[in-house]
């Protein structure tokens, strides 16, 4: 299995080191290569996604991404985050999976990732105003909604479709497509919820949800709200998948430049992203389960400072590796 690692910026390199260490501890034939990406790539190559990096990703079986973003690029014409948006588009990883587990919570957010506001036309006008265009085609909506139905069918057969149909034309189109597809999945119970109400429910009664499917911007916001109910962004993982080619597996947290180089970054989200890679790219569900259990155990016994503990990144990773070894014994 060929895995391209994009450490990125800030703590990205540190959590990526933990990910590679764990990969090497698994009974899996993996070839790993690292490529420049993000702010460091801008400094070295003038581009957050150099051509060689993109070509390596296209040829890989999976892409592991650490984190991107540095304060020095805020407001700059070329920013690290632009490389991430381009990479998602080039790989056409339109389905972003954000699982959330915690006390009384077990939900999956399926977010459309390559359309909507983040990919629509945007700019500044001569009068000083600005605009961002939210643009979706029926085909774009259909393919992500089908993913939502399929994942719901494999879970508890409840799908919540989130839109803003009372205000936005794209929201009305979204709801029309979902209703058109509903008869094809009679075993899945469907509800339609407006995004503002969904945000409230995620805070007040997150246990009501099984699988949520929604568009790009709403999914970005709601998945962070959900993560806040289950330990925060420091432990939240994601998988971005397409119909073919490599997926992107990355933690949800940012590059945290304020703690970079201190050896205290929490690698849990990165390691949970590796587990998602094992599940969806390597077809190794047993190894994915074992890694997720090992991370859960490390969170309980070896917490890093962000969770009130004193463990270093390396110590946390050692606990995970030792748990994996014990499970394999």
Cα-atom radius of gyration: 20 Å
Oligomerization category of the chains in this entry:
single chain
Order of helices and strands: EHEHHEHEEEEHEHEHEHEEHHH
Number of domains: 2
How much of the sequence lies in strands comes to 15-25%
Helical residues, percent: 40-55%
Q: Please tell me the CATH architecture of the largest domain by its name.
A: 3-Layer(aba) Sandwich
Mean pLDDT: 96
* Main beta sheet: 10 strands, mixed
Task: Assign an overall shape.
Answer: globular
Strand order of the largest sheet: 2-1-3-12-11-4-5-10-8-9
Structural class by helix and strand composition: alpha/beta
Structure in words:
The protein is of the alpha/beta class. The chain folds into two domains: about 1-95 and about 235-329, 3-Layer(aba) Sandwich (Isopropylmalate Dehydrogenase), CATH 3.40.718.10; about 105-230, Isopropylmalate Dehydrogenase (3-Layer(aba) Sandwich), CATH 3.40.718. It has helices spanning about 10-25, 40-45, 50-60, 80-90, 140-155, 170-180, 195-205, 215-230, 270-280, 285-300, 315-329, and strands at about 1-10, 30-35, 60-65, 95-100, 105-110, 120-125, 130, 160-165, 190-195, 210-215, 235-240, 245-250. It has a ten-stranded mixed sheet with strand order 2-1-3-12-11-4-5-10-8-9, sandwiched between helices. A two-stranded antiparallel ribbon has the order 6-7. Helix 7 packs parallel to helix 8 and helix 10 crosses helix 11. It starts with a strand and ends with a helix. The model has no long low-confidence stretch (mean pLDDT about 95).
